[in-house]
Each structure stands twice: as structure tokens, then as C-alpha cells.
Specification:
The structure holds two protein chains of two kinds. Chain A is about 75% helix and about 0% strand. Chain A contains eight helices and no strands. In chain A, helix 6 packs across helix 7 and helix 6 packs parallel to helix 8. The two termini of chain A are about 25 Å apart. By secondary structure, chain B is α/β, with parallel strands linked by helices. Chain B contains eight helices and ten strands. In chain B, the strands form two sheets. A six-stranded mixed sheet of chain B has the order 6-7-8-3-9-10, with helices on both faces. In chain B, strands 2-1-4-5 form a four-stranded antiparallel sheet, with helices on one face. The longest helix of chain B has 16 residues. The chains are: A mainly alpha, B alpha/beta.
Chain lengths: ~210, ~250
């Protein structure tokens, strides 16, 4: 499975580098420039917080969606399903891979602000939620492009319009207290996991309609 | 000796009955599956490949049910068109499918080299799939289908896009399998059937009209006795059967 995943990653082409380049080049450069601009201050913390809360959720389903695009939209895709019954394994592997990619970023940030270690946990929950929802959306709609639009729309909604504590809102600027964990992030994690299960069930029940 | 057994297979898609009580028993050999567009050839292939749900005991290979976990590993399959993971190289693509078929590390390289050699793809080994021509892509598809320990090879219109030389090579390679595997080839090209198939299965409107040798098909059609060309004879017999159904 690990070997197959490596080959699949290679097979999806250059778009996967968007994730790597953004996380490890663009994001650090912007953070560095802001460090110079604001120094270590509350303002810098908020700037980094906002930026990571936009970039990381938006990028979170990219690998999953690119792989699913091959499975759902490529000509003759039935061949890919000949020996593959459960796509959820792949979705989980690529989601975990993305979370692993986040670890060095948050560890480095935690040297400046310790809170970012908690942020890593929170963001991992958000990534699992968005990844699960993306898998569900693609399974139902069968169009990866629409799933990407929905994810971007969801992130923008969070940042621009969301008010009050809700399970479907991940962006809170206040300190992560137990209430937020219980009322928001725990249910979000559960919904994310349930999304994987429901998407997989739909995928198996309506597999025949996927073949191009 | 491999044996494929299909008993009373019915399949409807979106409320439309595509296969109507198909029963078929075949053993080692090369079979041309011929029929007009929409006859049910691809659906039949997908059912045999286990890609479409069907009655669990309707299809068996060597008495192994379609519902069995080992069933997919008995199948080699080429869809009508295939172009996923186009950024893999030819070698990687074959490795990917080989691994999916659970071919062990000790033999996979050997099998890939052999498949590349058979289908004249050695020079393209390190080329990306997206850089291949239509014919090369088709050969790659056929190459992956023969890898592994599959008892049945299902090829859906394999010769489309192949030039004359490659078509000859294809029939030569496939001919080598006729004694130890079942090869089902869906085609519209009657000449293909004459060239490489010992047996022919005529299918129309979801029903099998004829299953037997090519020679018997021709001899069963009395009006062709004066014809010399086998291709025309088979074409005439084919049309005769199709009209008979209508």
C-alpha cells in the first residue's frame, strides 16, 4: 500500500508540488518578512495565525482530491477499481501525509509562540474534517473541481462571515479552551470520521456509476 | 486448464436491461466477442471482471466464485480507453499494476521486462505515459493485462489504434496464451477474429447468439460456400445471425 501510494503520488504530476512549495517556501518566506516587519509581538502572532488558518485548510484536501480525480475522472478508470475496493485507505494515507508535512512548520513556529503546538492539534482536526468532507463531496458529486470550489468557499466563509460557536466553523481567534474543544473540535473530528465512513459506503454502493 | 462459467447472468443499468440471461462456458483459448454497438460486450466484460454487481454465484473461474477475495487476481483486464496517472513512466505504470496484482518483488521486474519486450515498449520504458502515442498507450494497456497469474484476460477492443505491424505482433503474443489462459477479445473488426481467434461469441441485445468455432460459424451459414475470402465469409455469417435475431 505504501509503495502504491508513492507511485500514485508520482502519477498525479506537478500539481502536488503546490502543497510542498506553499508550505515550505511561500509560507515561511511570508512569515519571515512579517517577523522583520512586526518583530515578536501579538500582532505577529495574529498575522501568522490568520495566514495559517487560510493556507493550511485550503491546501489540506489537495493531495486527496488529485488522487481521487484519477480514480473518478480518468478514462478507463474501472481498471483502477479491479483490485482496489476501499478508497478510504488512500484518503486516510494522504490526509495523514499532509498532517505529517505540517509538523515541522508548527514545531518551528512553537519556538516563537508556544501556542502553535496546540494549533497543530487543532489544525489536524480541521484537516481531517475538510479531507473527510472533500471525500464525501467528490463521492456524491463526482467532480473534483466542484469539491475544490466548495472547500475554498468554506474557508472564506470561516474567515469572513462566521459568527458564534458552531460545529462547522473552525476559525476562532480566542484561546483554545475546553469549551471550544468540546463544542467545536471534538464534534468536528467525529463528523470528519463519519464523513469517511459515509463516503466509503456511497462509493461502494454506487461504484458502477463511476466508470467512465 | 482454466474454465470460465457464467450461468444465467442478468444485468440492468439505470433500469435498462443490458444482459439477458447470459450463460456461457469457455475454457483455454482465444475468443472473439463480436456484436454491434450497445450489444452488451463491455458490460459482459465488466461483469466477468467483477466490476459490476451481479448474482454472486453467476460467474465462476475454476469454481472460484466472483465473490471470492482471490477472484480479482484471476483477471487481466484492458478497458476500452485507459489513461490514468499519466505522469508515471511506462515502467512505473507496469510496476504499479503488478503490485496491485500482488506480484512478488522477486519476479515483478522480470515480468515487466518480458511484457515490455512482448509489446515493443522497451525503448519507451522511461517515457512518461502522457508522452505516449495512442498506439503505445494501447500496447501498455495490453502489457499490464497479461502480467501476473491471471487465468482470464479480457481485452476490450485491444487493436484499436495499433498499426499493421503492431497488430500482427499483438496476435502473435496473444496466440502464445491460447493453451494456458482464456483470452476474451471484444472487437468490431471482423478481420481480427479471422486472424487470431479460434472461437467466436456473437452477442446482440444482451443475448449470446452463437458460441463456437469460427469454422463452424461459416459452415453453418450455407450461402457462403462460394466465397473464398474468410473475412467476407465471417462477415456474412455475422450479419446473417444479427438479421436472424432482428
Amino acid at each position: 500500500m505504501k509503495i502504491l501510494s508513492l507511485y500514485e503520488l508520482k502519477g498525479i504530476g506537478g500539481l502536488k508540488y503546490i502543497v510542498v512549495v506553499t508550505l515550505y517556501i511561500i509560507l515561511p518566506v511570508i512569515i519571515f518578512l512579517e517577523c522583520i516587519k512586526y518583530g515578536v509581538s501579538d500582532r505577529l502572532y495574529m498575522e501568522i495565525f490568520r495566514m495559517t488558518n487560510i493556507v493550511i485548510p485550503v491546501l489540506s484536501p489537495v493531495l486527496v482530491l488529485l488522487i481521487l480525480q484519477e480514480y473518478y475522472e480518468s478514462p478507463g478508470n474501472e481498471l483502477l477499481f479491479l483490485h482496489t475496493r476501499y478508497l478510504v485507505k488512500r484518503v486516510i494515507i494522504y490526509t495523514l501525509l499532509y498532517i505529517v508535512m505540517l509538523i515541522p512548520i508548527y514545531i518551528i513556529l512553537s519556538f516563537i509562540y508556544k501556542q502553535f503546538l496546540f494549533e497543530l492539534v487543532r489544525m489536524s482536526v480541521v484537516v481531517i474534517f475538510i479531507s473527510g468532507m472533500s471525500y464525501l463531496i467528490v463521492t456524491v458529486i463526482r467532480k473534483v473541481s466542484i469539491a475544490i470550489i466548495i472547500v475554498v468557499g468554506y474557508v472564506l466563509y470561516n474567515l469572513l462571515y462566521a459568527n458564534g460557536i458552531s460545529v462547522f466553523v473552525y476559525y476562532y481567534e480566542q484561546w483554545l479552551d475546553i469549551e471550544l474543544w468540546l463544542h467545536v473540535y471534538l464534534p468536528m473530528l467525529v463528523i470528519g470520521v463519519i464523513s469517511y465512513v459515509i463516503a466509503e459506503m456511497i462509493n461502494n454502493m454506487f461504484r458502477e456509476s463511476v466508470y467512465n | 486448464m482454466s474454465k470460465l462459467n457464467i450461468s444465467n447472468l442478468n444485468k440492468s443499468i439505470k433500469g435498462k436491461e443490458i444482459l439477458k440471461g447470459i450463460s456461457l462456458t469457455v475454457d483455454n483459448g482465444i475468443y472473439g466477442v463480436v456484436g454491434p454497438n450497445g450489444a452488451g460486450k463491455t458490460t459482459l466484460f465488466r461483469c466477468i471482471a467483477g466490476l459490476l454487481s451481479s448474482r454472486y454465484d453467476a460467474i465462476t473461474i475454476n469454481d472460484i466464485s466472483i465473490n471470492s477475495a482471490e477472484y480479482p487476481f484471476l483477471i487481466g483486464y484492458l478497458p476500452q480507453a485507459f489513461s490514468a496517472f499519466k505522469n508515471m513512466t511506462v515502467y512505473e505504470m507496469l510496476y504499479f499494476f503488478g503490485k496491485q496484482k500482488k506480484i512478488t518483488d522477486s519476479v515483478i521486474s522480470e515480468q515487466i521486462d518480458s511484457a515490455l519486450d512482448m509489446f515493443n515498449l522497451k525503448k519507451e520504458k522511461d517515457k512518461k505515459v502522457k508522452a505516449l502515442s495512442g498506439g503505445m498507450l494501447r500496447r501498455l494497456g495490453i502489457a499490464q493485462s497479461i502480467m501476473g497469474d491471471s487465468k482470464i484476460i479480457l481485452l476490450d477492443e485491444p487493436t484499436v489504434g495499433l498499426d499493421v505491424e503492431e497488430r500482427r505482433r499483438f496476435w502473435q503474443v496473444i496466440g502464445d496464451f491460447k493453451n494456458d489462459r482464456i483470452v476474451l477479445i471484444s472487437t468490431h473488426i471482423i478481420n481480427d477474429v479471422c486472424t487470431g481467434c479460434d472461437n467466436i461469441i456473437l452477442i446482440n441485445e444482451g443475448k449470446i447468439l452463437y458460441n463456437g468455432s469460427v469454422d463452424e460459424l461459416i459452415s453453418g451459414y450455407s450461402d457462403v460456400s462460394q466465397e473464398d475470402c474468410m473475412e467476407i465469409n465471417v462477415e456474412n455469417a455475422y450479419l446473417y445471425y444479427m438479421k436472424g435475431q432482428a
